[in-house]
Amino acid sequence: MLALRDLENGLGYRFDQIALLENALTHRSFVNENPALGCKDNERLEFLGDAVLELTVSHMLTRKFPDYTEGQLSKLRASVVNEQPLAELARRFRIGEFLLLGRGEEASGGRIKTSLLANAFESVIAAMYLDAGFDHTAAFIEGLFAPLIQEGTATSLYRDYKTDAQEICQVLFREVPRYTLIAETGPDHDKRFEMSLVIGERVIATGTGRNKKEAEQQAAKIALEELRQTDPLQRGDV
Fold first, then answer.
1. CA-to-CA distance for 161 and 17, rounded, in angstroms?
2. pLDDT tens digits, residue range 96-155?
3. CB 192 within 8 A of CB 184
4. Which residues partner with 196 through β-bridges?
5. Mean model confidence pLDDT for the chain
6. What are the strands of the beta sheet with 192-199, ordered from one edge?
């Protein structure tokens, strides 16, 4: 419990129910290896924290950009509420140091895994919500995400790579790219999708993500990096 006080200091919040924070930091690998302890993993909290984050950030965006369409708001939200920035926030608060992991997960570098850190951050948000209520948690989230939203707006953090990839593929190949599901792995609460960008019969690039759209964007981004180095005149073989 004393170690968790260090995390609370970093978060700037003292839990009335410290067991909620401990639950948020408990990975299923630890529960599986220590059944006698009777503890629960953080997967339900992760589910709840994701919903709290999405609602709060959605509200922030609709206030800040009253003239944006639903599509524009969705794209901007996707730029700040996704695995990478959530993991970075977890690293800022050193959440990885406080995780309860099984031996196998510990040995495989679980404390620094992007997906695991992002999930743990969502769980901590849920723990705060259950302990302090929505208003306090929303204020905490807004303090973290307001700079990310501003950065995203100023630097076009979100890129619609699929649109860019379609344009360059039409120039190079006179064909619209297709996206094909290669693999779907992981439990229901933590799915990973692998999608390929295909032209004709050729796989140009593959990408992964927590949903199909994210994986398609990743595949399109990788394809763009490769295709922009290609001379259209050299592509008559496709």
1. 44
2. 999 999 999 999 888 998 889 999 999 999 999 999 999 999 999 999 999 888 765 544
3. yes
4. 180, 206
5. 88
6. 178-185, 192-199, 202-209
Residue 161 has what DSSP assignment? H
User: Are 175 and 199 contacting, i.e. CB atoms less than 8 angstroms apart?
Assistant: yes
Residue type, 155: T
Helix (H) or strand (E) holding 48: helix 43-64
Global confidence as pTM = 0.67
CA distance 193 to 12: 35
Q: How confident is the model at residue 238 (pLDDT cuts 50, 70, 90)?
A: very low
Helix, strand, coil distribution of the chain in percent, nearest 5 = 65, 10, 25
pLDDT confidence of residue 234: 37
- Residue ranges and CATH numbers for the domains of the chain are 2-155 (1.10.1520.10), 161-232 (3.30.160.20)
Could you give the residue numbers annotated as active site?
A: 50, 122
For residue 13, the 8-state DSSP code is -
Contact 165, 223 (CB under 8 A): yes
Total residues found in the chain within this entry: 238
Separation CA 213–CA 193 (nearest Å): 9
By the 8 A CB rule, do 98 and 186 touch?
no
Of the chain, the end-to-end C-alpha distance in Å amounts to 62
Q: What is the amino acid identity at position 63?
A: R
Query: What is d(CA 74, CA 160) in angstroms, rounded to the nearest whole number?
Result: 11
List, in sequence order, every residue forming a beta bridge with 178; answer none if it has no partner: 198
φ/ψ of residue 235, rounded to 5 = -105, 25
Q: Residue 194: beta bridge partners?
A: 183, 208
Q: How far apart are CA 208 and CA 37, in angstroms?
A: 35
